[in-house]
Amino acid sequence: MGSINIRPHFQNRALLKHTHTQSLYAMNAGDGPLSYVQNSSYQRGIIDVAKPIIEQEIATKLDIKQIYSNNPNGFCTIADFGCSTGHNSFPVMQLITQAINRKLEYSSHKIPEFHVYFNDVVTNDFNTLFSSLPRDRLYSAAAVPGDFHGRLLPEHSLHFGYSAWSLQWLTEIPKVVADRDSPAWNKGEILYRGDIKEVCEAYLEQYSRDIESFLKSRAVEMVGGGLIAFLVPGVPEFWNPEIEYSFPSGLNLLGSCLIDMAKQGRLSKPKVDSFNLPFYFTTQQQLKAILERSHSFSIERMEILDNPGKYTLASANARAAFFRAGLERMLTNHFGSEIIDELFDLYTKKLIASPVFVNPDNDKSIVILVVLKRKID
Hints:
The protein has one domain (4-374): Vaccinia Virus protein VP39 (Rossmann fold, 3-Layer(aba) Sandwich). Helix content is 37%, strand content 17%. The chain has twelve helices and eight strands. The radius of gyration is 21 Å and the shape is globular. It comes from Rehmannia glutinosa (Chinese foxglove).
């Protein structure tokens, strides 16, 4: 059902300087053994937990009057910001369209045409996404390539927004962590560590700016009374790194493999020192403080979800493949493709040797579910 097209986007000029960095963010393409499609069960696990919550929020909070206000054609527009190749996006898009459909049926309104915009960076594998679209979908589909921290859609056109496993990405590495003369220089690490305050603060400041940019752009695009739901990977306020792990510790373990390879002469140490990952994994309190600064959205719901997807990474090989699917393009760009197999072989061995990482019950990473409502100006 529906059509497929690529539509132009409104990219914020202030963000164009990040185009090269953003282009590296795409997940591994295709559907082969190293692809994101085959290695995103961790992300998929949270969807079943989030589904009934999203349905409930649509049923009770979505302002259906706004779907028809100044909208003579009765379109209902939905967007997924950070869709990747669609494997995990399609079930949620179906859920959202069906939930809105039911709400409108109960209200005796005419059922509108549904349009879904699939957004990701310009190098995303949209071919795999569109060749995999469900035949029984209720919507027409369009690709909107570009950085979601800037404008992408026409003003006052979006009724429901969604984003999952995407808002941890930063538009750029904080400049001070790459500055040798800065107290926040992140020497020998590829991500922030909790015991280095200056580095953590630099990452949090960048994350705050990026979330605020995301919200400002959506505020222009969304209609008053519209909803946006997102699932944000994060960390709890307190956890014990001696016996537990989270997203940052898993990535820092990968960094230790790069250091080992540099010591063995397989990589140059300065090359490792100059590599930092563009991620920040927020706590619920940090994210709430950022969201509360927005004058355009009200927080309708915010809660921590436990992700059953972690049990799909019970083996070291599965966990290594999960990280490789998301990081390979960045690593290859910086270090070259010839070291990738060796790097992830070493990573797998370290995972196997660790009494902490071998048990999924020790994974204390969280997913923060947030539902925001666009205030009516």
